[in-house]
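Researcher: We're teaching a course module on how sequence relates to structure. For the next exercise, students receive a sequence and then see the predicted structure as tokens, so they can try to spot secondary structure elements on their own. Here is the exercise chain.
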Amino acid sequence: MKPARFTYHAPRELDEALELLRDLGDDAKVLAGGQSLMPMLNFRLAHVEHLVDINRIGARWASPTFGEDTITIPALVRQRQLERSAEAARLLPVLTEALHQVAHPQIRNRGTICGSLAHADPAAELPSVLTALGATFTLASARGIRTVPAADFFLFHLTTALEPDELLLEVSVGRPGANQYSAFREFATRRGDFALAGVAVVCEVDDGVVTACRIAAAGVAPTPQRLTDTEQLVLGQPLGPDLGAAAEATARAQVDPTGDIHASAEYRARLTGVLVKRALADITEKAHA
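Model: And here is the predicted structure for the students to work with:
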């Protein structure tokens, strides 16, 4: 199928794009990579009157910055770009690990980091990873700029804190310290499919003991789910098999997913626990290397 008719806009400046979003409101959608939006339009699962293509708004929005305190990923950074970045792999290995699992290379070549976050599919990898990293989202409109923490950005399935006239301009995370370790684990029935469940785990470790921990699960709730009970269990404990087993049980009990034709609710809950245990095992190996 082909999309219904729409009016195409290709602004060349950020201000021009924001003015279009202000004037067009609910009738407009932003196009960056289009790897989620275009299939929905083609299948007529979504319809827009106006498509605002932001790919020409400037090169500054297409390159990540690795600052002394903050790592910033602007709106036009492609997934493949960060997947291949040695600096990203060094500083944000959990993001690199997750990007390897996103769909297929053809998709990652065009898809953007911010586009996936704005689409907010709870089964996608990147929302859970940026939640575990404690990211901050910068939203821009003709009215001004505001920042929203990850905990407040994802509201429901395919629903975020973005207003109709706003653009997700960039996402930023704090530069990790030397004692931060992380891991991403997911399980999909076929390579490139949406995962039945996934987990992103970010820990700070001092002398083999977890001093800080954030765990976010994908595919088990309408938004990326912070596994706070499991985080509290892990906190202050030494890494090792005993901790992994306890975290598995706690994570399994904490999630309440829905079932579908791909997996039952019970299977997804059990899978979440197993993935948490495996991610903690990965972190243990990295911390002891």
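Model: If you want an answer key for the exercise: The first strand starts at residue 7 and ends at 9. The mean pLDDT is 97.
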